[in-house]
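Lecture notes, part 5. Sequence design as translation. It can be helpful to think of inverse folding as translation between two languages: the language of shapes and the language of residues. The source text, in structure tokens, appears below.
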């Protein structure tokens, strides 16, 4: 059996562990220094904005499309295997359009999506009022509705992925930090080979090492003599409760506008998010209260009923954003034959986790020794 060690059990590492665990010839260990899903994943809103994104070709679209396709089978598969109910919203995503927005661009995208086999509807104000009665029409000119995009609870999804992986034989080690690697030096024509990872004084043997440690990936690659720059981009979000939210019968989609999302979570609760806060010149990021206030006010401007909705909770997380290369980074670590980077997913880690797992599996297959 080939030994695969996955470092980091956020959405990315957990999805890789679950997807690879379908191969009985792999002996997989999943490691996290904390609890699974407690990094950026634990703060995410879980919007899977694929069809409604303006990307229609190239790598970004291919990753989004592959992920969304997999999500439509993955949720059911995980629920049936683990008996964990994964909260997700199948009513789609409504994107508000404002004065100055180019409506033709959205009609064109709807046409392209139709050719690709997906539905995207462009609504006028009357349709929007009928479908989403809480939206303040004075601020908008219409909306774009994507019925196939989803929203999912990232922490519970991660929990289900880890349980599913564990049921399929993945060895999970949580609360332990990978602090070093043992490496065979390279030959004249060969890359270096990592033989094991060090966890609290113990060694775990490896044929392949996957670094999916989010912001922690930078320190790990540094210890391997490689430079991978990932910066933390902070995001804050709120949970509010509105007992008087009006909705069309059996229709309660995510509403988004100007990058502010309102996600109904059941029990009259809504997630509002998220701010995008870059670190300062000292590379230090601290939550800015004013930005959270602005976010709250903008959400109220879209849906005035939220004004009377008490804030139950606020939280923040740091998105791992790669510098000098596009997100996400899915490739072999330069100079190493058996270390694979699956990191730097920035604002789309929940959406792109399944496609990332597919690409990681392909990199292992391409190695030629994969026991399929
Ligand atoms: C407020 C907010 C809202 C967001 N909304 C969305 C959204 O709607 N849709 C979307 O797709 N994305 C969203 N994102 C982005 C998404 O959360 C991230 O892209 C994604 O969670 C990254 O996942 P990850 O597994 O790479 O990293 P993480 O979740 O950070 O996981 C990395 C893990 O590695 C572990 N680790 C690090 N170093 C080590 C080590 N040396 N040894 C052992 N373990 C280690 C950490 O403990 C951590 O658990 C949002 C992010 C934020 C902050």
């Amino acid at each position: 059996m080939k030994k695969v060690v996955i470092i980091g059990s956020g959405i990315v590492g957990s999805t890789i562990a679950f997807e690879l665990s379908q191969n009985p010839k792999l002996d997989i260990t999943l490691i996290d220094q904390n609890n699974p899903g407690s990094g950026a994943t634990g703060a995410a809103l879980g919007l899977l904005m694929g069809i409604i994104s303006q990307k229609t070709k190239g790598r970004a679209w291919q990753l989004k499309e592959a992920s969304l396709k997999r999500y439509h089978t993955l949720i059911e598969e995980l629920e049936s295997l683990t008996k964990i109910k994964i909260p997700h919203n199948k009513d789609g995503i409504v994107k508000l359009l404002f004065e100055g927005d180019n409506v033709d661009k959205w009609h064109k995208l709807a046409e392209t999506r139709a050719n690709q086999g997906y539905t995207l509807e462009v609504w006028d104000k009357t349709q929007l009022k009928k479908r989403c009665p809480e939206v303040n029409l004075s601020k908008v000119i219409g909306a774009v509705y994507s019925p196939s995009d989803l929203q999912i609870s990232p922490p519970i999804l991660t929990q289900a992925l880890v349980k599913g992986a564990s049921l399929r034989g993945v060895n999970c080690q949580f609360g332990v930090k990978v602090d070093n690697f043992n490496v065979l030096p390279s030959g004249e024509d060969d890359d270096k080979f990592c033989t094991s990872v060090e966890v609290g004084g113990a060694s775990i043997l490896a044929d392949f090492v996957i670094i999916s440690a989010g912001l922690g990936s930078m320190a790990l690659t540094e210890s391997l003599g490689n430079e991978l720059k990932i910066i933390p981009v902070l995001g804050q979000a709120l949970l509010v409760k509105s007992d008087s939210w009006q909705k069309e019968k059996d229709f309660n989609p995510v509403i988004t506008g100007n990058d502010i999302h309102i996600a109904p979570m059941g029990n009259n609760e809504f997630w509002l998010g998220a701010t995008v806060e870059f670190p300062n010149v000292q590379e230090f990021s601290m939550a800015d209260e004013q930005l959270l206030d602005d976010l709250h006010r903008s959400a109220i401007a879209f849906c005035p009923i939220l004004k009377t909705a008490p804030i139950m909770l606020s939280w923040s997380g740091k998105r791992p954003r790669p510098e000098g290369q596009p997100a996400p980074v899915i490739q072999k670590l330069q100079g190493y034959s058996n270390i694979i980077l699956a990191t730097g997913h920035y604002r789309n880690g929940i959406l792109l986790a399944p496609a990332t797992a597919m690409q990681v599996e392909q990199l292992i297959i391409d190695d030629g020794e994969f026991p399929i």
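The translated text above is only one of many valid answers, since several sequences can fold into similar shapes. The longest strand covers residues 230-241.
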